[in-house]
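Input record (one chain):
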Amino acid sequence: MTTASASATVSSGHLRGTTADGVARFLGVPYAAAPFGALRFAEPRPHAGWDGDRDATHNGATAPQNPYGGGLERLLPTVRISGDEILTANIWAPAERIDGGAPVLVWIHGGSLSHGSNALPMYDGARFARDGIVFVALNYRLGVEGFTVLDDAPANLGLADVAHGLQWVHDEIAAFGGDPARITVAGQSAGGALVSALLGHPTARHLMRRAVLQSAPLGAADRDKAGRLTRLIASRLGIGTTRAEFAGQGRETLLAALRAVTGKATPLAGGPGFDLVVDEGTVPAPPVDALSRGTANGVELLIGTTRDEHRLWMVPTGLADRIGRIHLTLARLKAGVSRRVVSRYQANRRGSKPSDVLGAVVIDMLLRRPLVRVADARSRRGATTWVYEFTWPSPVDGLGAAHGVELGFVFDLLDVPDYRAMNGPDAPQALANEMHGVWVSFVRGDDPGWPAWDERRQVRIFGPEPGRVEPLPRADEIDVWDR
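The corresponding structure, as predicted from the sequence alone:
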């Protein structure tokens, strides 16, 4: 592969990247000032710029974060790159400019608002650029730096970073051959939650034409509930919950305190975690409510889940074998779920482990029910929504179609080691061609290839059988909640 130099000029200065195989790459490009020092726990600010060429051939610094643990580290990698300038964009663009500008896909990574970065090889956007799309992956503040709830600091700072980054993309993407009028924003898991919040954000929602929500929670918590983890960290360190007291702690000190108070908490095992906060300036209402009421009706949505979301947290951690019927009953009572609801899930899963029943119930509470509510409400209002479900079963440790298994297919990167660890060496390239092709078509502004959601509730199934479309799978489980 022959690599040559590439250049671009943005408002902050000149960039020197690389080009190879028809794709130009610009890595570690700052879209905001470093959020440390006087700017720690403050709203993102514009970058002051630089003189001369800035080297954009390497990934920038990553947000402070702990690696995954409890068995998840075998499947979910962590990259840590030191430095202060963590608010960066990685850009992959067609080396040959497209008349009128190429469509743009902005990617927001997942990771429970605590993990992840655009430096992970699994988020390489070269395949999208090969297909004529300018692909941008944004970093944002994570965990304590981005989602603590302090007495005198703005809420949802990580979301504010993403909104600032999206504005930067809109203003600067023409320098990379992109069309600012054709921006699609996509995210998976917590990244999808951030995208859903952008759709209701007072200043960000007008910047996107389409959006993709992959396995995205659509909720937000009140300030008291969302601040629980902040109070636990403060208590652990013997400090108050003010900006000055948190800013007086080193990054590693805060990460150590976070590890100590969260333990083995996961979205399914429970325990404290970070949440988006209902906040007038950033999240005026939980996204499920805002989208159902008509916010972002003018933005076309592609939204979906994987069939076995829960198995990512059940299988590697060993929970799948430790959860029994008593745990299922206790969890039902704690969550206020009726016996009738659980009985329906059990009837549909005769012979399954209690962990699979519990996992399906929890995932429907967090993901599928809000998805269906939004799709139904948008359909009644004339807004366009396409819904999918991913069902290809990974053979690795019995993961099945677990949370995140679809990513290697969307990115068409099944050969990347991180995806091989999750999907095995023989994941079907034909399915990657199919799924990646749908995402490309959607970003280009085309019909993705199946009926938009209406009273028929048609869902595209990405699984062993190509091109399958059917009514909402397991609709009886979704509907039983409201009887």
